[in-house]
Amino acid sequence: MGGPYASKVATLGGKPTKGLDIPIDAVFLTLFLCAGAAHMRLYIMNKKRGHKFIPSAVTFGFCMSRVVANIMRITWACYPSNVSVGIAASVFVAAGILLLFILNLIYAQRMLRAAFPKVGWSPIGSYLFKGMIAVVLLTLVMLITVLIQGSYTLDTSILQIDHKIQLYGVAYFAVIAFLPLPITILVLIFSYGKQVEPFGSGSWAAKGAIVLTAGTLLCLGASFRAATNYLPTHLITESPPYDSKACFYIFDFGIDITVVLFFLVTRVDQRFYVPDGSSKVRHFRGTGVDQKDGVSENASIERKEETIVPLPETHAEV
């Protein structure tokens, strides 16, 4: 058995270099570290007051995965001939973004359940959502497997199979990134003028705007990665413009940090908070917002400023 073998095919971002990539990766590393600290501090502060919002901890985990990805790219730039380090860097770059896809899909699901509980809380809807998440995790395992396997073989037939699996994976991830958009748009259209069950704080329209904005950014990045994979492959010496380092940092780390900071500034920990055990009782009542028989008009879901935990100082540093 040989390998690992360096890839001869052009990939998004290519191999990092000391002069260009290390300064950029260092900046993104600092940004993700500060953003992760801010989300974790919010999680701890909220938990102390009985307001446990797990997505804040998940966002912290995503930021730490991006910190590791940037560290691995810096290491790879220092040791460009070390193929194993390159594989590890590629794995961390590809894996982390899925957490943001899942979080935004969860926010869209909460809006669906608030507006149309018979659909959102139905067994079919719940199992469908869980099934999609399970397929995401299985697909991630498949992509990591073929990424590593492709570095330890020169068999063209195996490499072709690995490439087809990669095409399926990026396409499925693009679909997951896109799903919150139609779900939220349909919910906003068909819930207009109707009563919805209140949850969290802030207006109904603001919740929709947050999911749509984050979904558009995430879908843009996922679609770009999928499109470039479906285009004809090129040798490293013939790398096309869409595989440039500029495209890599814009559509990967650039979009990622934008969404993370967007979630922080818009206070998703307050707007999309639901009580523990909501999935068991199948409703969001008892969230601390004004209610009338468990429901409220869209326009009546107003934000309560006294329930907002102040942003940590680390946010200002970001």
From TrEMBL:
<feature type="transmembrane region" description="Helical">
    <location>
        <begin position="127"/>
        <end position="150"/>
    </location>
</feature>
<dbReference type="Pfam" id="PF11309">
    <property type="entry name" value="DUF3112"/>
</dbReference>
<dbReference type="InterPro" id="IPR021460">
    <property type="entry name" value="DUF3112"/>
</dbReference>
<feature type="transmembrane region" description="Helical">
    <location>
        <begin position="83"/>
        <end position="107"/>
    </location>
</feature>
<feature type="transmembrane region" description="Helical">
    <location>
        <begin position="26"/>
        <end position="44"/>
    </location>
</feature>
<feature type="transmembrane region" description="Helical">
    <location>
        <begin position="170"/>
        <end position="192"/>
    </location>
</feature>
<protein>
    <submittedName>
        <fullName>Uncharacterized protein</fullName>
    </submittedName>
</protein>
<keyword id="KW-0472">Membrane</keyword>
<keyword id="KW-1133">Transmembrane helix</keyword>
<feature type="transmembrane region" description="Helical">
    <location>
        <begin position="204"/>
        <end position="226"/>
    </location>
</feature>
<feature type="transmembrane region" description="Helical">
    <location>
        <begin position="56"/>
        <end position="77"/>
    </location>
</feature>
<feature type="transmembrane region" description="Helical">
    <location>
        <begin position="246"/>
        <end position="265"/>
    </location>
</feature>
<keyword id="KW-0812">Transmembrane</keyword>
